[in-house]
Q: What sequence folds into this?
C-alpha cells in the first residue's frame, strides 16, 4: 500500500450558505514513501485546502489513507498532525512564545516528549533551518521576516514528521532565503528519506526540487505525472493559468524555430545536453 | 463553530429590502421594534408575524439562514418559555401536579405569555438580522452617521464614531478568518482546544490570542498609515462618494409600517376585552 492514498476526495466550504464553494472535487491519487511531490495550480484552485486535508484539519468527503489508516473517519485523525507536519502559508504569523526556543519546542511538547528529547529536537530543527543558536533566547517578534519563517518551519520539523507538507514556504522571501529554505528541504528529504509535498507558484522551484507534480485546476486534479511529462504539456498549463520554468519555454521557442530539441526540459544539465546533442545532430545532418 | 456567527453578516442581493435607503431601513427597524412592544393581543401578534414573514419573503434571504441567526439565542428562548409557563399566576388549565414536593401547574395566562414572549424575541431577532443581512456594513454605518448628524451641532464627533464602527465591522470577518487560520496552524502543532479542565483550556488560548493581537495591531497600524497616505483628516469638510436620496419605495415602506403600527394600536383598543397585560 502506498503511504498516502487519496480516493474521491471532495471538500466544500460554507455548506448551506449562499457562499458555498467547491474547493476539492473528486480527487484521487497516491504517493509512495520518500517521494518529493510538487503541487501547483492557479490562485484559488484548492491547493491549500488539499494540503489541510492531509493532517486532518479539514474533514473532507471520500477516503484519505495515511499508512493505511483512513483519516476521514471519525477518531482516526488523532495524532495525525505529528505524523504529517504541515507548514502553513505565511507560517510566521503563528509564532507566539516569548522566546524562539519555546516556540520551536511547542510541537514536541504537545507530543509529550521529555525535556532532553525536546532540547535535541529543537537544536536539530534549528540547524536544519540554518539559524544560529544565539537566536534561541530572542523573542520571535524581533526577528526579520525570513528568520521568522525559518523559525516557523523549524517548529514543524522539530516534530520529525514522516510526511512533511509545505504550503508555499518560499512565498515572499528574497532569492537567497528562498533557495536556502528549499535546499534545506531537499536535504531533509534525502537524508531522512521522508516524503515531502510542496506547493508553490514558482515553477522553477518545483522543477528544481520535485520528482512528480500534482496540477490542480478549479478544484479538480488536472495531472499527476513526473516533472518532464507535466512540463511537456505547456500549452495546457498555460490554458489553466500556469507557467512553465524559464528553461522549458526557451526550449519550446527553439523547437518552434525548427531546432531539433526535445520539449519538457527543465534543468540546466538537461539543457546543456540537449544543446550539445542538437549541435552534433545539426553537424551530422 | 466560528462560522456559525451570522449576526452582522451581509448577504448581497437586489431585493426590495436591499434597495431601500439605509437611513429609512434603520428608522423602520426601530419603529418595528417599538411595534413589537406595543402589540398586546394575540390578534395583533398574528398580524405582526404575518408582516414579518412577508418581509423575510421580500428579502429573498433563505429562511434557513434566518433560523440560523436564532440558534445562539435558543437557550434564552427556551428559558423564558419555561419560566413563563410555570410562574405566571392565573386560571390553571389542569389540577396541580405534585413532583417531589413541588406543585406544578400550567395556567392559561402563563401559556399565552409564553407564546407572546417567544414570538416577541423571535421576531425581534429575525427583523433586526434582516436589517444587517440586507444592508452592507458600510451603508449601515453611513446611515447611522446621517441619522445622528444633527448631534454634530452639540459637538458630538459623529463622523469619528461612525468611522470607528465601519472599521470595526470591516475587520470582524478578517479577524474571524485570521483566528481560524491561527487555530488550524496551532492544531497542526498538536495543541488541543477542547480537552482538559478550565485552566488547561484557558492556557490553550494563549497560542491563538498572542498571534491574533500581534496581527490586529499590525493591521491597525497599516490601516492608519494607508489612511494618512490618502490624506484622511477626520470628517471636517469631507464630501461623500455616495449620496442617498429617498425615493418612492422608501416613502411607501414608511407608510406601510405606519399603517401596520396604526392597525396594531387599533386592535389593542378595539379588542380590549381579550387584551392581556404583560
Ligand atoms: N475558509 C474558507 N472559507 C470559505 N471559502 C474558502 C476558505 N478557504 C478557501 N476558500 C475557497 O476555496 C477555494 C480554494 O481555496 P485554496 O485556499 O485551497 O486555494 P489555493 O489554491 O491555496 O490558492 P492560493 O494559491 O491563492 O493559495 C477558493 O475558491 C477559496 O475562495
Ligand atoms: Mg493557498
A:
Amino acid at each position: 500500500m502506498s503511504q498516502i492514498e487519496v480516493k474521491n476526495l471532495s471538500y466544500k466550504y460554507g455548506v448551506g450558505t449562499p457562499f458555498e464553494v467547491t474547493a476539492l472535487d473528486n480527487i484521487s491519487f497516491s504517493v509512495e514513501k520518500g517521494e518529493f511531490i510538487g503541487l501547483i495550480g492557479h490562485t484559488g484552485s484548492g491547493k491549500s485546502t488539499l494540503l489541510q486535508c492531509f493532517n486532518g484539519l479539514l474533514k473532507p468527503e471520500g477516503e484519505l489513507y495515511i499508512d493505511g489508516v483512513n483519516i476521514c473517519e471519525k477518531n482516526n485523525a488523532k495524532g495525525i498532525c505529528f505524523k504529517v507536519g504541515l507548514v502553513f502559508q505565511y507560517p510566521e504569523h503563528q509564532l507566539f512564545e516569548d522566546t524562539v526556543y519555546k516556540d520551536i519546542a511547542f510541537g514536541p511538547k504537545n507530543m509529550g516528549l521529555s525535556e532532553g528529547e525536546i532540547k535535541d529536537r529543537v537544536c536539530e530543527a534549528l540547524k536544519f533551518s540554518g539559524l544560529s543558536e544565539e537566536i534561541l533566547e530572542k523573542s520571535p517578534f524581533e526577528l526579520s521576516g525570513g528568520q521568522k519563517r525559518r523559525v516557523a518551519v523549524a517548529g514543524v520539523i522539530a516534530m520529525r514528521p514522516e510526511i512533511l507538507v509545505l504550503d508555499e514556504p518560499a512565498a515572499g522571501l528574497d532569492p537567497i532565503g528562498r533557495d536556502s529554505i528549499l535546499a534545506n528541504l531537499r536535504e531533509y528529504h534525502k537524508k531522512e528519506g521522508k516524503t515531502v509535498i510542496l506547493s508553490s507558484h514558482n515553477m522553477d522551484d518545483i522543477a528544481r526540487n520535485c520528482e512528480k507534480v500534482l496540477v490542480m485546476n478549479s478544484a479538480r486534479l488536472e495531472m499527476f505525472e513526473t516533472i518532464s511529462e507535466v512540463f511537456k504539456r505547456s500549452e495546457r498549463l498555460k490554458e489553466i493559468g500556469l507557467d512553465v520554468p524559464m528553461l522549458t519555454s526557451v526550449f519550446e521557442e527553439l523547437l518552434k524555430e525548427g531546432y531539433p530539441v526535445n520539449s519538457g526540459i527543465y534543468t540546466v544539465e538537461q539543457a546543456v545536453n540537449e544543446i550539445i546533442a542538437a549541435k552534433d545532430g545539426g553537424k551530422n545532418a | 463553530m466560528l462560522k456559525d456567527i451570522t449576526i452582522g453578516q451581509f448577504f448581497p442581493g437586489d431585493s426590495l429590502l436591499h434597495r431601500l435607503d439605509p437611513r429609512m431601513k434603520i428608522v423602520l427597524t426601530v419603529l418595528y421594534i417599538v411595534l413589537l412592544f406595543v402589540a398586546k393581543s394575540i390578534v395583533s401578534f398574528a398580524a405582526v408575524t404575518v408582516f414579518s414573514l412577508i418581509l423575510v419573503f421580500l428579502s429573498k434571504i433563505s429562511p434557513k439562514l434566518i433560523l440560523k441567526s436564532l440558534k445562539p439565542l435558543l437557550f434564552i428562548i427556551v428559558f423564558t418559555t419555561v419560566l413563563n409557563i410555570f410562574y405566571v399566576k392565573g386560571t390553571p388549565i389542569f389540577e396541580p401536579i405534585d413532583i417531589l414536593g413541588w406543585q406544578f401547574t400550567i395556567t392559561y395566562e402563563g401559556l399565552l405569555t409564553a407564546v407572546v414572549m417567544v414570538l416577541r424575541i423571535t421576531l425581534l431577532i429575525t427583523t433586526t438580522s434582516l436589517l444587517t443581512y440586507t444592508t452592507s456594513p458600510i451603508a449601515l454605518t453611513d446611515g447611522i452617521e446621517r441619522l445622528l448628524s444633527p448631534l454634530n451641532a452639540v459637538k458630538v464627533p459623529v463622523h469619528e464614531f461612525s468611522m470607528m464602527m465601519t472599521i470595526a465591522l470591516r475587520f470582524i470577518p478578517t479577524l474571524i478568518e485570521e483566528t481560524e487560520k491561527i487555530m488550524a496552524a496551532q492544531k497542526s502543532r498538536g495543541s488541543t482546544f477542547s480537552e482538559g479542565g478550565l485552566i488547561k483550556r484557558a492556557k490553550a488560548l494563549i497560542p491563538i490570542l498572542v498571534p491574533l493581537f500581534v496581527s490586529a495591531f499590525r493591521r491597525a497600524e497599516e490601516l492608519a498609515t494607508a489612511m494618512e497616505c490618502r490624506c484622511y483628516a477626520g470628517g471636517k469638510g469631507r464630501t461623500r462618494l455616495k449620496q442617498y436620496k429617498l425615493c418612492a419605495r422608501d416613502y411607501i415602506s414608511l407608510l406601510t409600517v405606519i399603517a401596520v403600527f396604526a392597525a396594531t394600536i387599533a386592535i389593542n383598543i378595539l379588542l380590549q376585552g381579550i387584551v392581556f397585560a404583560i
